[in-house]
Amino acid sequence: MTPDIWVMITGILAASALGLIGSFLVLRQNGMLGDAISHAVLPGLVLAFLITSSRNVVPMVIGAGLFGLLTAYLTELLSQTRRVYSDAAMGIVFTLLFAVGVIMVALFAEQVDLDQECVLYGEIAYTPWNTFVVGGTNLGPRAVWILGSVLLANLGFILLFYKQLKISSFDPQMAVAVGISEKKWHYLLMTMVSLTVVSAFESVGAILVVAMLIIPGATAYLLTSRLHTMLLLSVGIGIICAVGGFMGASYFDASIAGFMAVVGGIVFALVFAGTLIAKRIHQTRYTSERQHIAETISG
User: Fold this and answer.
1) How many Cβ atoms sit within 10 Å of the Cβ of residue 16?
2) How crowded is residue 244: how many other Cβ atoms within 10 Å of its Cβ?
3) Mind giving me the DSSP string for the chain?
4) pLDDT tens, 239-262?
């Protein structure tokens, strides 16, 4: 395959994996928790490298996953005191952890092959040359294998625990009433979010990660009230963003990840405007029908 095809596949896999798991963040009104986690995992990445002296994906995911859970736990802990609003608690926790990560990068800059720009922006255009080689055989870009595995993991997680995730996302009180631990599924979901976010970091960066974590799910939420349809639509919208963003970036010779995020914003804006117009038309028809009925009765 050509490098362009690999880049597009990487974008599609990242958008699909992030859109699937991000839909539950949208439903739980925890959309910005994904942004918080995407920054707060930086200390985990640095610690994983310092302990293992390698950028192997397994220790990186473990380190980042632990700090992702720590972010969710500390945010909820502060919120439960009722002295700090959840959005403020989130801002406090993720900025603190991200700042600690930045300081660690500065202190261990000579030993750690990580930097803030790498984590924040990524570069999806370079993924075709970072390949996965086994026994001398080139199996293609490493990012495709990693993101493909994460997408399958997310699919398996959702299919196996669909009922628990649905109930705990739509009605936490009902979940508790039927014996489903809302906190347990919250932290399991945060684990999968952390895994997905970290896996997409190296190839696409945090900006596209946050965009694809929220925009596909938020857009799909405007189009349907059914969870399974919302999940399918979020994947489809993610694919549109990836393909459309790549084509736009190629045409304008601009940032691929940035253009994918921009296309996501355009798609959301179009759907949002469409739903507003449809609602206005429905209200107009409803008002017209009521007036007609009233005139018929009075006549």
Assistant:
1) 25
2) 18
3) --HHHHHHHHHHHHHHHHHHHHHHHHHTT-HHHHHHHHHHTHHHHHHHHHHHSS--HHHHHHHHHHHHHHHHHHHHHHHHTTSS-HHHHHHHHHHHHHHHHHHHHHHTTTT----HHHHHH--GGGGGGSEEEETTEEEEEHHHHHHHHHHHHHHHHHHHTHHHHHHHHH-HHHHHHTT--HHHHHHHHHHHHHHHHHHHHHHHHHHHHHHHHHHHHHHHHHH-S-HHHHHHHHHHHHHHHHHHHHHHHHHHT--HHHHHHHHHHHHHHHHHHHHHHHHHHHHHHHHHHHHHHHHHHH-
4) 999 999 999 999 999 889 889 999
User: b/e per residue, 58-78, with b = 16+ CB within 10 A?
Assistant: ebbbbbbbbbbbbbbebbbeb
pLDDT attached to residue 88: 86
> Domain limits of the chain?
3-298
Q: For the whole model, what pTM was predicted?
A: 0.87
Taken as a whole, the chain contains a residue count of 299
Domain 3-298 has CATH 1.10.3470.10: yes
Band of residue 182 on the pLDDT scale cut at 50, 70, 90:
confident
Q: Is the dihedral of CA 32, 33, 37, 39 positive or negative?
A: positive
